[in-house]
Specification:
mainly alpha
């Protein structure tokens, strides 16, 4: 699955868990699936961050000023 597909699936799982009255076994299975999807997304984002860091450091070595590094978590705290 792609990151976008994983995020859509996570949204579906979340909505079902929040809105539907599910048998415990089904709810637990959905929860486990959601945890697995979150882990895949975290792995993808970690790899993407490493790539961006690597590319940014290559640009810095070439003399480009990239300014202040972007921190997505900082934006969430400000909201």
């Amino acid at each position: 699955m792609s990151f976008t597909e994983d995020m859509e699936r996570l949204q579906d799982v979340t909505v079902r868990l929040e809105k539907e009255q599910l048998p415990l076994e089904e709810a637990l299975a959905l929860f486990e699936e959601g945890v697995a999807v979150v882990r895949r997304c975290e792995r993808f984002l970690g790899e993407a961050r490493q790539k961006v860091t690597l590319l940014a450091s290559e640009d810095e070595r070439e003399g480009e000023d990239l300014g202040v590094p972007w921190d997505p978590l900082e934006e969430e705290e400000d909201a």
